[in-house]
Amino acid sequence: MSSSFPGPTAKRATILDVAAAAGVSRQTVTRAMNDMPGIKQETRERVQELARELGYTPSRYAKGLVQGARTSVGLAIPDLTNPYFPAFASSVVEMATLRGWNVVVDDFGHGSGSSLDAVERLSPQVDAVIGYLGPHAAEAQALLGRRPVVVLDEPSALTAGGISFDYPFAARLALERLAEIGRRRLAYLDAGPAWQLSARGAAVGRAADDLGIDLTVAHAEDSAEGARDAVGAMLAAYPGVDGLLVFNDLMAAGALKALAAGGRSVPGDCAVIGMDGIPLGMLLTPELTTLSLDLRDVGRAAVDLLDGLLTGALPPRSAGTHLTLRHELVIRASA
Amino acid sequence: MSSSFPGPTAKRATILDVAAAAGVSRQTVTRAMNDMPGIKQETRERVQELARELGYTPSRYAKGLVQGARTSVGLAIPDLTNPYFPAFASSVVEMATLRGWNVVVDDFGHGSGSSLDAVERLSPQVDAVIGYLGPHAAEAQALLGRRPVVVLDEPSALTAGGISFDYPFAARLALERLAEIGRRRLAYLDAGPAWQLSARGAAVGRAADDLGIDLTVAHAEDSAEGARDAVGAMLAAYPGVDGLLVFNDLMAAGALKALAAGGRSVPGDCAVIGMDGIPLGMLLTPELTTLSLDLRDVGRAAVDLLDGLLTGALPPRSAGTHLTLRHELVIRASA
DNA sequence: GTTTGTTTCGTGAACGTTCACGAGCTTGAT
DNA sequence: ATCAAGCTCGTGAACGTTCACGAAACAAAC
């Protein structure tokens, strides 16, 4: 009944310790522990009991070494604070678990550097990486050598597998909706620095041109607070805005706050459309109209793609290593 | 420049392949790859280049086997959909990374069974577990044998390390606040089935008794939707309620929706206090008053505790294996 | 009582890496 | 020339497990 964790001094019990204690051989212990056939029931139980008593845990390293690698994939996530990413992570974990894979999550949000740092941390322990790597996709692939990488939302990453989103399509969907409900003075709030438009921003700009719509573009830090401040400033500079499209749902939440603070009713004075389709949108006031993505689809797509790359069914740089998903417009109260 | 991922057929390149290609020995390759001293700069570069070309990646299993285990801890999370948990996970990951540990996340939310299943999946690949294991804490510890477990929010789990929260204190804080702003007809919304009060619920009940406050208790499924429906029903059965304390922030968000739908103003007609202190609260309308927990503290506490258990500095079942954290009342608009 | 088959168990080898130690070579000083 | 000291590099051993195979032991059938 004594119980004490094996300190750093006390070496872990090995399979030989158990074998000796039970008066049997290694192989018999292996058979007992892994429920393999060819062993008497009584022996099996005796060995298992003894193993429990000695606190024996098979070394995953030794096991992995001899059995050939269980594939384990790294998941690099920018920011677990934005509900979108945990939802995505959850989906990937689910799909990977179905395949018997093992997922190691690393988020590089809290000031702990860039996506490259995450990949660097992940590198020694995984056979592949899935992640929102942003502009560092190519370097990440270089760092991982021949191990496959699936990059989300970065179509330029040609060396790896990629999943991107049809932003022109999504932008059109949103702008048409705003036009349809009679909005003429539209604005788009992008994430990131003012001197550089995101892929989404560029698509929105082009869609506006195509549709002959006049569009004001503002920039904010990628967070609810950033969006709130930016929209506050925008309302001062461009008071007539009556339709607002926002980079993502979290920022849209911040935008709603700023609009309320500025005395604008939503959607009366200004309609708002977000992007992501996270459950948060339904909790806001008013409920958020958004360009939604089925995250289970995204996770499934990423894992499928990686599977193809890992098994070799999908040669790198071939057609099929890159696929594009489409958003769907979910209309709720805000637009 | 040819690049192709090593299929399942093509065996991985080993250290011997690199050594042969470079015309050196294993050890020299090891020295080159790990930036160890005692090797000529020129050799180092030549070997590294060759390794890159052959797509050589050191086997983490072989490395782990000989170097002794890098500790890796499993994190068992009930539901990544509730923003509280990713935030907690993020905090644990951060603290663990600081120690050079490695974190494997498993969530058992999406119908994939109980916390025990998660522990079972985690068991072969981790040296310890941190998690919200609920009632299965004891079984989990049994399953993990001598490997330490840190259980969150389950004070009865005496076999393992534990972190719990001072609910009597928190309940008092909330009820006093509601009384202070003149609320007399209070209700508490618990999570879980009607026939069983949660630990939080029990503490709230006792605090109400102590303070001589009359309190109605309702039950809902642990989700925003569950809370919305339950509060809707409550408003019909108990229309006079003017102060509401809710199991957690996500459910509080649902409660706000139901109150709005029921034509109640918040906090005018009914004040609301949540519990968790997640950022979501600030995005709601009105902003949510809540019993907040500094998640970085919780993560740090869990990792510290585990560290003590792993190193043996903290004997199991001793004082100090169980510690209690306190909530803080963050007053915003809703109460 | 021999043969045949089945169940139960044990032994050498291998997985891929690092560690401890020692060997060869170069350099510089005596 | 000799020795010592410092680089550079290589070899046997070990890490803990499973796999492939063979050896006992036992039961069943003739």
Strand order of the largest sheet of chain A: 2-1-3-4-5-11
Second CATH tier, the architecture of the largest domain in chain A: 3-Layer(aba) Sandwich
Order of helices and strands of chain A: HHHHEHEHEHEEHEHEHEHEHEHEE
- The end-to-end distance of chain A, rounded to whole angstroms, is 65 Å
Assembly form of the protein: homodimer
What's the gyration radius of chain A in Å?
A: 26 Å
Which sheet architecture does the biggest sheet of chain A show?
A: 6 strands, parallel
Q: What are the low-pLDDT stretches of chain A, counting only 5+ consecutive residues below 50?
A: 1-9
Q: What is the count of structural domains of chain A? A: 3
* CATH fold-level assignment of the largest domain in chain A: Rossmann fold
CATH evolutionary superfamily of the largest domain in chain A? Response regulator
CATH class wording of the largest domain in chain A: Alpha Beta
The chain pair forming the largest interface, with residue counts per chain, is:
A-B, 69 and 68 residues
Average residue-wise pLDDT of chain A: 89
Written account of the structure:
With 335 residues, the first copy, chain A, is an alpha/beta fold. Chain A has 3 domains: 15-67, Orthogonal Bundle (434 Repressor (Amino-terminal Domain)); 72-165 and 295-327, Response regulator (Rossmann fold), CATH 3.40.50; 167-292, Rossmann fold (3-Layer(aba) Sandwich), CATH 3.40.50.2300. Chain A has 13 helices and 12 strands. The first copy, chain A, has helices spanning 15-22, 26-33, 41-54, 60-67, 84-98, 115-122, 137-144, 167-180, 199-211, 224-237, 249-261, 280-283, 295-311; strands at residues 72-77, 102-107, 128-131, 149-152, 161-165, 186-191, 215-220, 243-246, 271-276, 289-292, 322-325, 328-330. In chain A, the strands form 2 sheets. Chain A has a 6-stranded parallel beta sheet, sandwiched between helices. A 6-stranded mixed beta sheet of chain A has the order 7-6-8-9-10-12, sandwiched between helices. In chain A, α1 crosses α3. The relative contact order of chain A is 0.11. Mean pLDDT of chain A is 89; it is low at 1-9. Chains A and B meet through α4, α5, β2, α11 and α12 of A and α4, α5, β2, α11 and α12 of B. Chain A binds a DNA duplex (30 and 30 nucleotides) through residues 12, 14-16, 24-28, 30-31, 34, 37-40, 43, 58-59, 61-68.
